[in-house]
Amino acid sequence: MRGGIAELKVRLKQAKAGELLYPHTAMKVGGPAELFIEADTSQKLVEAVIAAREIGVPYFVMAGGSNLVISDAGLSGLVIRYTACNLVADDLTLGCEGGLSLWSLVQEAGNRGWAGLESLAGIPGSVGGAVFGNAGAFGYSISDILESGIVLTPANTIETVGNDYFKFRYRHSYLKESGDILLSVKLKFKPGDKEALWQKMKEILTLRAEKHPPHDWPCAGSFFKNIEKAGEPYGKLAAGILLDKVGAKNLRIGQAGVYFKHANIIVNYGGARFADIRRLANLMRQKVFDEFGITLEEEIRYVDGSGRKQA
Ligand SMILES: Cc1cc2nc3c(=O)[nH]c(=O)nc-3n(C[C@H](O)[C@H](O)[C@H](O)COP(=O)(O)OP(=O)(O)OC[C@H]3O[C@@H](n4cnc5c(N)ncnc54)[C@H](O)[C@@H]3O)c2cc1C
Description:
Blueprint: H1 3-11, E1 16-17, E2 33-39, H2 42-55, E3 59-62, E4 68-70, E5 75-82, E6 87-90, E7 93-97, H3 102-112, E8 114-115, H4 127-132, E9 136-137, E10 140-141, E11 146-152, E12 158-162, H5 175-178, E13 181-188, E14 190-191, H6 194-211, E15 219-222, E16 227-228, E17 236-237, H7 239-245, E18 252-253, E19 256-258, E20 265-268, H8 274-292, E21 301-303
Parallel strand pairs: 2-5, 3-5, 4-21
Antiparallel strand pairs: 1-2, 6-7, 7-13, 8-14, 9-10, 11-12, 11-13, 15-20, 16-17, 18-19, 19-20
Bound molecules: flavin-adenine dinucleotide.
Flavin-adenine dinucleotide binds next to strand 3, helix 4, strand 9, strand 13 and strand 15.
């Protein structure tokens, strides 16, 4: 064990060496973490990040693993899986820790008859991951109702920040640039009708079930971002439409293949390699570029050691 890692292991007693990461991801790809810790309180998350920063060990914070394609070689340094999920409700406001599943939050709001998150029904992953990538669907995103967040800054201070701080845009937040770690959020809802909200959520879940692979087929949802374009539904030209036009549904490399019903979803058909997925994605992008002159950008995040911005 390297010096820094050994020192970190002494400081973080619950950290484990060699935890395989693929079971913690939706794509079911990813080798061992040199050191892995589950942070089931925000205090543990803060302690782990600060310890890694002080000792100079690279670290990566993940949660639901639904938007990640992790290297088969695994990750050096510390991987922290954030699972803290406390939730409090007050006056049309829900406050929760970032490790709470987004679906739990959506259901909580629906059960209270509070409107604002119902379009996000069925999006997997955590609230923290949703804020990081400004998750959304059907023209709505989490940024629409986020009032404030508590972040651990790169300077190791804990600060409460407002919506503006996150510089939200389509599938983007400032967290992608800054290295801030999101501990918790407050979301402000509008009064709604419980029955109507659940009706809408059920319709959305049905639509999603028709579009997406069955739950036990490993995938990371839409692989590429849509293209922002005025005049298109929700202001976006669907990457899936372009991919379909270039015949992407027939593409497969190794055990990684494009889903036959949705050209913007890559499925791991069993034992797909990180390199296969990346090559397949590059081929899909190239075909769209050759035909339309448009360069698709990944919505998912590759994590292979070299691309770890939080370190
Ligand atoms: C079947 C399927 C359907 C999907 N449909 C949609 C959809 O309709 N719309 C949509 O927007 N997305 C969709 N996604 C993508 C995914 O669900 C979202 O991106 C989700 O919000 C990611 O959350 P996570 O907890 O899984 O994050 P992870 O995959 O664990 O991490 C993603 C990124 O977030 C960062 N992160 C996580 N938690 C924190 C934190 N507390 N502080 C700082 N950074 C953090 C990680 O470092 C990482 O870079 C889909 C995925 C799947 C598998």
